[in-house]
Amino acid sequence: MLLHKKLKFVCRFRYLTALLLLCGTSILLIQINSALRRFQSYRNKTFSSVIDRSLYAWEKWTSSSIESVLYRTDETFHLSTEAGLTRETTTAPSEDVLNLRLRTVSSISMSPKGIPDKPRFQKVNDFDAWLFSAFYDNLNNSDLIRVFGIQPLLLNTPVFCHLTEGIDTYTVEGKKTALNDWHKKRRRVFSYECPLNETSRPNNVSLTFVETDTPTNSFLVLYPERIQRNFTVCYSMLFNFNTPYQLVQNVEFNRVLGAEHFFLYRESVSSAVDTVLKHYQRQGFLTVIEWPIPVGEIHYHGQILSLNDCAYRNRGVSRYVVIQDTDEFIIPHQHDNWTELIEVLNKEFEQSNKSPSENLGAYIVLSSFYQQSPSSSEWKEIKRKFSVSDQDFQKFANFSLNVFSDLKRLNMYFRGQRQKSFVRPETVLFNDIHSPDKYRPGIAKVKVHVDLAVVHHQRRYSSPQNNILDTTSLRFKDRVLPLISETVSLLSL
C-alpha cells in the first residue's frame, strides 16, 4: 500500500515537473520572439508577406551607407549589398528623374527566371480589374508606389492602397491614370499611384476599390537597382508566334549591335520557338515573363502594359531600353554599334542645346519597310562588294534571314506610328509602342537623322514599286551570320 502511494506521488511530481518545464519553455520562446521583433525594429528591416513567399530585407541609411538585401524566391536565396537612397536637387530634371542615386548591388545568385516578384495577373476582388506589377517611383519630388494593371475605361471607382512594411499594414487612398490607347478599346492600361511619406519604404502593396474590402492581390514592390548594362531590348509580347529563325536573327543581330539583355512576354509560341527561348535563357541574357492575358477587348493583348512593365523593371539597371518587335532592326548607318551612335547623338545634343545629355530621355529613329530582294544583276554586284559567298547566300534562304536578303525598301520613311526609340527608362513616365507617350519634367528627346540610323522593318507593306536598294545590313554580315549559324546548328532548327 505504501509503495503504491509512493508511486502515485512520483508520477504526479513528474507530470507537474513536465508541465512547469513546458510553461517555462513557452515563456522563454515568447520572450525570444519579442526580443527578435524589437531587434528587427531597431535595425529597421522589413520582410515581405508570406503570401508572396518572399523574404525581403533592407536597411535605410544615408547616401554613403551600405544596405544588405536578402530575399527568397522559391528555394533560391539572393543576397545583395546596396548603397542607400539620396535626393539630388542640382539639375532641373533630377528631382523628377527618380530622385535616386541608387545602390550598388552585387548579386550572389539569381533565381531560374531572374524575376524576384514572379509577376502574374491578379484580380481586384470582384471588379473587372487585373493588376500585374508594382514599382517604387518618385514624381514631382514625391515618393509613391506605382502599380500597372488593366480595367475598363468607364469603371469609375476610387482606389485604396494597402501597404505592408515589416509587420505593419496601413491604408492610403491613391489615384489612377489611364494610359493612352489610340485604338479606343473598352479596356485600357492603367497606372495606380499610392502616395508615400518620406520615410515609408513598403515591401508589399495590395489594391482594393472599396476601402473595407479584404485584398485579393499582393505585389512585391520593386525598387530600382544599380546600372548593370547599357542596352536592354524590350520585345512586344509574343502571341501565336511560330517563326524561330526570325527570333534568332533578331537576337543575334542585336547582340552584335550592343544588346546585353532581352525581355520577352510570352503568351503563346510554337515548340520550336520555345526551344530557342530556353536556349537563350540558359545563356543568361533573356528574361521570359509569362503573359496569360486574362481579358479581351484591350489592344493587342495588353501590349502597352508589357512595354511599360519592361521599362520600369530596367530603371537603374539598364542605361537604355530598346522597344521593338522581332522583325525590326535599329541599324546604325555610319557606326559599328549602338554605343558609338548614342555617343555621337549625345555630343550633338550638348553642343546644340547647351544642356547635358542626361536631360535626354529618348532617341527616336524613323522607320522604313524593307520588303523586296534585289534582282539577279543587283545581287551580282552586292556579292562582289560584300564578299557574300554562295554558302552565305544559301543560308539567307534556308534560315529566312530577310535582314540580309530583303534589301530594297520603300522610298519613304515613317515617323509617328512606325518609329522606334532608344529610351532612358528613368526619364519616361509612360511608354507607347513606338516612342514614349509621356516624359518626366525637364526631359528632352531627339530625332535621329536617317543618315545615322534607320529602323529596318523587315516585312511587306505595299507594292514594291519604286523601292530603293539599301545594303547597310550587310556591313554586319560577317559578325552576325556565324552567330546565327551556330545557334541554328546547336538547336537543330
TrEMBL record:
Topology within the bilayer: Single-pass membrane protein
Species of provenance: Biomphalaria glabrata
Protein name, entry field: Glycosyltransferase family 92 protein
GO cellular component: cytoplasm; membrane
Keywords for the protein's UniProt record, in alphabetical order: Glycosyltransferase, Membrane, Transferase, Transmembrane, Transmembrane helix
A GO molecular-function annotation: glycosyltransferase activity
Family according to the record: Belongs to the glycosyltransferase 92 family.
EC identifiers of the protein: 2.4.1.-
UniProt xrefs under Pfam families: Glyco_transf_92 (PF01697)
Cellular compartment(s): Membrane
Main location: membrane
